[in-house]
Amino acid sequence: MRNKSPKVINPDTNTKLHSRSKEAMKKHLIKILMECEINKGFPFFGDSTFNYIYSNFWQEVEKTKKDWLSFKDTYSILSHGINNYIRKSVNSNVTEVSGRLVEIVKTEGIDLIAENIISSLESIPREYQIHFNLPAAHPLGISEVFLTEHISLIEVEEKAFAHDQEAPPMTVALQESVQEIKNKRIHLCIKSSGYADDSLESSAVKKALSIFKQVILLGVYSGVLIKGEPRSSLWGWGARRQVFIRDKDGKFIKEFSEGFLLPFFLASYDGISLPKQVSDYVSSLIINEEALKPLPIERLLEKFENVDNLNPEEKSKILKTRFTQPIKLLQESASNKDAERIKTALEWSFDSITNENHTFAFIQACIGLEAILGDDKPQDSITEKLADRCAYLLGTTFQSRRNYKYGFEKIYKIRSTLVHGRTPNLSIEEQKFLILAESILKDVIWKELSYLS
Which of 5, 98, 232, 446 has the most CB atoms around its CB within 10 Å? Predict the structure, then answer.
């Protein structure tokens, strides 16, 4: 199940835990911490303790925080709480610390760690600004374009994403490389709520990544984003570390940046790497300047100071106009089932076109087609019904509908041989149907989007 629109905190949301819940959590935490072993600064739990964390501590957390925390998030908060306390309280290199936690921090330390972890849990949900760097996109002189209340394109100085800390001297070549990544960049900024750490799977980042995929693909479909030449960066680092996380006050979260060893020239930067295939795809996208030129009808209806040299306000307005249909979709709530089908199909389509494995890409495209053309009722055989829906949605003549139906049925015949294990890979001949499947999915998404009220 794909992620729905990210929840954003209501100012009136009460994040406080009930006293009885806090007492139960602390009781479980003390037992867990007393059994904890430290291996080179990091906590380690045996099988029985891990099971206790899941069946007792997590179950208590889930009662009040299930909308914002997964078990993995909760485990991450537990581990970071232990690691951070050790780093701040032990007078030695944290990577040299090993042994039983209670012997390292004593009983009073166990109690403080438990209190700190509960305080962290009580602060959930937190508000975040998740920044996705578009490395190849050249700035347009627009400081910020709000696509929706929670999604915007912003222009930033890359040096704003460096911490104010001293680094060892660099060579001239390295200084030039680092200076290059301090140039202005375009970021897609998504406001999300929940919990964020150094993982794309943490709840707030996962929700934002879901929206990121939708926005990127909608930008490509609408012609606003096109492939261009990637900008050079520090040994490829700038292209991969594309996700930056700030809290509601605009400060970088440091829960995962402290206590971990990085090369000195990266030590002042936070960020999460996108998967290579996703990074390669996103890193090639630029804003299509041709798409930002006024159309003849826009020149008649609007006044422009200079149509050949638009000012930032004019560019911003045209950019939002080009995103009219995508914005309509992005603003729809999770209660709109039609919109949710389109959003789900968009994510599967994104995953398909960024997957280097043709077999998995083909299956992902098929799942996207089922998501947008199918219904909630289980059926023994849905191929013909889906093929008919696709044909009548996209076809404009009898012959074109017949061609769509034939292509769709051929796609699903290949899908059947893959998922039932009769063949492990797409043949060269079948790979052209991967292109067809992705193309049909794109057309169906765009057609359905045009019907969205």
Answer: 5
Residue 381: band (very low, low, confident or very high) from pLDDT cuts 50, 70, 90: low
Mean of the per-residue pLDDT values of the chain: 83
Structure tokens at 256: 């995962």
Residues contacting 141, CB < 8 A, separation 6+:
155, 312, 315
**Strand order of the sheet with strand 184-194?**
144-146, 151-157, 184-194, 126-134, 241-247, 272-273
Long-range pairs, 329-336, Cβ under 8 A, ≥24: 329/214, 329/218, 329/449, 329/452, 330/5, 330/147, 330/148, 330/151, 330/211, 330/214, 330/215, 330/218, 331/148, 332/5, 332/452, 333/5, 334/4, 334/5
Helix (H) or strand (E) holding 237: helix 237-240
What number is the average pLDDT over the span 425-434? 84
What whole-number distance in Å separates Cα of residue 198 and Cα of residue 441? 33
Rounded to whole angstroms, the Cα distance separating 324 from 38 reads 54
Rounded Cα distance between 186 and 315, Å, is 14
137, 287 in Cβ contact below 8 A? yes
- pTM here is 0.83
Q: Does 234 have pLDDT greater than 70?
A: no
Question: Exposed, middle or buried by CB within 10 Å (0-12, 13-18, 19+), for 95?
Answer: middle
- Specify the pLDDT at position 159: 61
- Three-state SS letters, 13-67: CCCCCCHHHHHHHHHHHHHHHHCCEEECCEEECCHHHHHHHHHHHHHHHHHHHCC
- Could you give the CA distance from residue 359 to residue 418 in angstroms, rounded to a whole number? 8
Q: Cα separation of 312 and 145, whole Å? A: 10
Residues 192, 189: Cα–Cα separation, whole Å:
10
Give DSSP secondary structure letters for 132-188.
EEETTPPP-S-SEEESSSSEEEEEEEGGGGB-S-------HHHHHHHHHTTSEEEEE
- Per the CB < 8 A criterion, the answer to whether 210 and 144 are in contact is no
Q: What pLDDT score does 50 carry?
A: 95
Quick check: 202 and 73 in contact, CB under 8 A? yes
DSSP 273: E
Q: What is the mean pLDDT of residues 72-98?
A: 87
Residue 264 has pLDDT above 70, yes or no: no
Question: For residues 378, 383, 389 and 392, what is the CA-based torsion angle, rounded to 10 degrees?
Answer: -170
Tokens of residue 138, six digits: 């050249």
Phi and psi dihedrals of 173, rounded to 5? -60, -40
Greatest Cα-to-Cα distance within the chain, rounded to the nearest angstrom: 79
